[in-house]
Amino acid sequence: MLKVPDHQVAGHRQARDGKPSPLIDDAGRFYKPLQDDDRGSKEVAFYSSFSSNTRVPDHVRRLFPVFHGTQLIEASDGSGLRPHLVLEDVVSSRSHPSVMDIKIGSRTWYPEASEDYIQRCFKKDRETSSLSLGFRISGLQIYGNEESRLWKPENKLVQNLSAADVKVVLKKFVSSNFPDDPNSDPDCSFAASVYGGSTGILAQLLELKAWFEDQTTYHLNSCSVLMVYEKEKMLKGERSDAEVKLIDFAHVTEGKGIIDHNFLGGLCSVIKFISEILTSPDECTTKVCLQDSDKNTNDSENCTTEGM
Amino acid sequence: MLKVPDHQVAGHRQARDGKPSPLIDDAGRFYKPLQDDDRGSKEVAFYSSFSSNTRVPDHVRRLFPVFHGTQLIEASDGSGLRPHLVLEDVVSSRSHPSVMDIKIGSRTWYPEASEDYIQRCFKKDRETSSLSLGFRISGLQIYGNEESRLWKPENKLVQNLSAADVKVVLKKFVSSNFPDDPNSDPDCSFAASVYGGSTGILAQLLELKAWFEDQTTYHLNSCSVLMVYEKEKMLKGERSDAEVKLIDFAHVTEGKGIIDHNFLGGLCSVIKFISEILTSPDECTTKVCLQDSDKNTNDSENCTTEGM
């Protein structure tokens, strides 16, 4: 039985403008309708190449969704049979996932694209945080303490954040208090276990970085890093299930012997933000918690950001 | 006594369009005329800030020219007194320096620039190798075996090289045979001693990279990495004097808590090219030396590229 998933956070993976939505089954597979024009075939070409590329080391391969080929299935909008990419379901198989979709790169266009596409991306990169930060948050959902309370700001609101605001959002992502409460500063309770540690998000991003410093096969234009974990497990004291997955390969081009310096630079910027949260717990009180001086003392105690 | 230096390789540091040229003295100082508009004052502001910034570690500081303040001196074109930056003379104090000026970054413009400047740079970055490689060679001079024979291609000819051509030029830079000889493939004789080793160019670039992964104070837009060494010393079996220096800070902007992901990405691309020359000596024969099959055997023996 296929159904429309609950937890899609980034814009173009939702059903809109009459386009069919992705589907999931109960066996952990995610069915992504092939995009029109050549984007769909480009994404299939990337997954086919990547999944059969024996030079990709296992610790890098696990940062990409598993590819199960393509399948002709009934589209979610009732428009009939349509080819779908069949992928590992990274998000929807979880019960209450907190998810952040970060589009990497200060530039989302690439020389091989059409002039029209280049100009549109050039404009959007300048209008969002892509140009300044080297990435933009494309989508976001964070659960609060109670499972049912979900903070899911509109994508437009998070695409053009300042450096200071991005840091706050990255702190909210790993805090126990409810992210949408203006009277409550992020306590960073889960920073050490979600971002830090040998299997945490930072460690996974550093493995990705090392690969991008070396690989010259793929340029992952306009691709996203998805960060996922379940706060519920943290609250129960369970081991962190934090995961990094790269998604959206409709604009991948050949590396032709050159590293993807655009992706690498943006990735290093994300890494720097997350590293700072882990290594500068003081900032939790000095910058973010300035509003309420009484609370600073407690918050600084809660800032369990001892680093990796 | 001030004089016009012999060894300026990049375009805008030469006298042209009626602009005065830089000057040198015999005490190892380089006098750079302050550029008109706000570029001159921006460069002074950068050198003042950087030279007094106590957070810059010594191993990074030595990759920048020493700053000796500004001085009002007679311009080289006889146009009268003009303020000059007084800097360490990196190149001209050497007798026969081989020099490569690499402008780092796939983007030479920045959000704070004027729309006119942005559009001009955007166009030039696309027309040169900056966009694809993450850098462009801005100027180049390589000495041959005999001191007097100098290969100094026009800057326009080296700004838009393909990945394969950049690799050839980087090999020519560290080869004993004359770089302009079409019948002679680069032998990479000096690769290990100039690029490799604990004090070689790659080691210096890696120190720079580590700093750029962390520092969020300066964005070095449109800045160059200069690589310099004297082939004569290599031929005499002396220790390599290979040096990396960053130059041209007329477009530096404040980092505002964000790493310079554009510079970092481009720098990583340069590092990858140089690493490959050090770690893949075979390629010297398979790709570059294909033209003359008889010579391949000899060349592969000469490829002393054992890595660091």
TrEMBL record, chains A, B:
Keywords: ATP-binding, Kinase, Nucleotide-binding, Transferase. It catalyses: 1D-myo-inositol 1,3,4,6-tetrakisphosphate + ATP = 1D-myo-inositol 1,3,4,5,6-pentakisphosphate + ADP + H(+); 1D-myo-inositol 1,4,5-trisphosphate + 2 ATP = 1D-myo-inositol 1,3,4,5,6-pentakisphosphate + 2 ADP + 2 H(+). It comes from the Eukaryota. GO terms for cellular component: cytoplasm; nucleus. One of its GO terms (biological process) is inositol phosphate biosynthetic process. InterPro entries: IPK, IPK_sf. SUPFAM superfamilies: SAICAR synthase-like (SSF56104). Gene3D superfamilies: Inositol polyphosphate kinase. Its EC number is 2.7.1.140, 2.7.1.151. GO terms for molecular function: ATP binding; inositol tetrakisphosphate kinase activity; inositol-1,4,5-trisphosphate 3-kinase activity. Residues 1-26 are annotated as: Disordered. It holds the Pfam family IPK. Belongs to the inositol phosphokinase (IPK) family. Inositol phosphate kinase with a broad substrate specificity. This is Inositol polyphosphate multikinase.
